[in-house]
Amino acid sequence: MPQTLAEKILQGRTEESITGPGQIVRTRLSSVLANDITAPLAIKSFEAMGATKVFDPEKVFLVCDHFTPNKDIDSAQQVKVVRDFARKMGVVHFYDGGESGVEHALLPELGLVGPGDVIVGADSHTCTYGGLGAFATGMGSTDVAAAMALGETWFKVPPTIRASFTGAMPEHLEAKDLILLLIGRIGVAGATYKALEFDGPVIAAMDVEGRMTMANMAIEAGGKVGLFAADDKTLAYARAAGRTDAVAIAADPGAAYEQELTFDVSGLSPQIACPHLPDNVRSVEEVADVAVDQVVIGSCTNGRISDLRRAAALLKGRKAAKGLRLIILPATPLIYKQALREGLLEIFMDAGAVVGPPTCGPCLGGHMGILASGEKVLATTNRNFKGRMGSLESEVYLAGAGVAAATAIAGHICHPAEIVGRK
Q: CA 279 to CA 222: how far, in whole Å?
C-alpha cells in the first residue's frame, strides 16, 4: 500500500505493518532530547519509575539553551540537575556553556538528527527536524523519561495534510512567510495530531534551512510533525554534518492524504502573525503602521546563518531606529563564528544591535529581552501567545528575518523592499 512520508518513516522503525492512520505502533527511537527546562522534570520521572540507566548514552541529547548562562539561582540549580544527570548516566551529547546553542539548530548542525530518524523531545519545536525528513515530535517530560529509559515509545499513526507550494517566489519572501500563510489558512488547531507534508516546486527549490524553519512551526498549527522529503539537498546537508548513512526518503506515489492544499505564492507579500496567536496572520502592508519597541532576530525558527545574512544585507550601512532595541542572537556557536568571519556581527553592532550569545532566552520570556507592559516586539521567533515574551500587556508580532531587519530600521513594521535603496 502506498505510504505517506509519516507512515514510511515510522515503518522503518517498527516491526508492525503500518496500514493507515489511527493505528497504534510501537516504535524504536533514533534519539531522545530534553533541555534545561524540561530535562529536570524528565529526570525526576525517570528516577521515580526506578530507571537506573538511559537506553543508550550516545542517543540521549541534553541541551542547556533556555536559561544559560544561568540568569539566577533557580536556573543555576535547574541546569545543575541536568549536568549531574548527564555525568551520572554518561550522556555523550550534553551541551552547556560555549558548546551549547539553540537545540533545534545545534543538533542538525552536529549531524545528530537526519533523514529517516524517529525522534522525541521534551520541547514542542522538536518537529524542526522534519525539515531533514525525520519524524520528530514533542512530548511531555514524563513520556520523555520513559523514552530515555526504554529507547522506544508508541505512536498513533497520524493522518496527513499535504501542502503544496507553487508559483514564483517573490523577492524578499522567506520560508517563514509560507508557514505563516498556511497557519493563517488552517488555524492553530487545523492540523491537530496530523502530519503536515510539504512539497511542490517552491519547496524543491528551498534550501534545507528554510525547510527547517517551516517544519519548526508545524506545531503552531497543532501538527504532530512537519515533514519534507529527504532529497539531494537534504543528503548534502546531512553528509556535510557528518551523517554518512543518510539516504533519500519520500512519500510513495498514490499515498492517501486526508486533505490536500495548494498555495500559489506568486505575488505574495511577507506575512505577519499578529497578537496573540500564530494564525492571526496579515500581510505586511496591513500592519505597516504598527510601531515597535524591540526587534529580535534569532531562535530555533530564524537564527541560522541564512537568516543573519538576510538581515545583514538590509542593515549594512544603516542604523536601527532611534529608541528601538535590536537584539540579534546567532543560534549556535558555529553560526556565531561564521557570522563573525563574514563581518555580519560588525554590521549588526554598527547598526546599534545588541549581539548576544546563542540562547532561546527571549522567545519564551526567559531572559535577554523581556518586554514591559505596553511594549510591542517584532520577532523571528515562533510563538506569540499573550505574555510570551514578558508582560501580559505586551504584544508579539512574528515575521521572517528580512521584515525584522527592515522593521528595526524603520521603527515600524516594514516591507524589506521599502528599505532597499534607502540610506
A: 11
Neighbours of 333 (CB within 10 A): 18
Query: Which of 113, 305, 142 shows the shortest CA–CA distance to 225?
Result: 113
Residue 99, φ and ψ in degrees, nearest 5: -90, -10
Beta strands in 123-172 (DSSP E): 135-138, 152-156, 160-166
pLDDT at 327: 98
Torsion of CA 284, 321, 409, 293, to 10 degrees: -40
Would you call the peptide bond into 69 cis, given omega within 30 degrees of 0 as the criterion? yes
Half-sphere CA count of 386, side-chain side, radius 13 A: 2
Label residue 185 left, alpha or beta by phi (over 0 means left) and psi (-120 to 50 means alpha).
alpha
Q: What is the pLDDT of residues 209-246, one digit of tens each?
A: 999 999 999 999 999 999 999 999 999 999 999 999 89
pLDDT at 139: 97
CA dist., res. 51 & res. 70, Å (int): 28
Phi-psi map region of 145: left, alpha, beta (phi>0 left; psi -120 to 50 alpha): alpha
Strand order in the sheet with 225-228: 225-228, 195-199, 160-166, 259-264
Q: Rounded mean pLDDT of 352-361?
A: 97
Secondary element (H or E) of residue 142: helix 141-150
Binned at pLDDT 50, 70 and 90, residue 422 comes out as low
Upper half-sphere CA count for residue 406 (Cβ side, 13 Å):
23
Contact 413, 290 (CB under 8 A): yes
Asked if 331 and 300 touch (Cβ cutoff 8 Å), the reply is: yes
Tell me the C-alpha distance between 247 and 58, whole Å.
21
User: What is the C-alpha separation between 287 and 274, in angstroms, rounded?
Assistant: 9
**Does residue 423 register a pLDDT over 60?**
no
Average pLDDT over residues 327-340: 98
* Burial status of residue 245 (CB atoms within 10 A of its CB: 0-12, 13-18, 19 or more): exposed
| DSSP state at residue 128 | G
Place of cell 509560507: 178
Over residues 327-333, the mean pLDDT reads 98
End-to-end CA distance of the chain: 59
Q: Is the peptide bond before 276 cis (omega within 30 degrees of 0)?
A: yes
pTM of the predicted protein model: 0.98
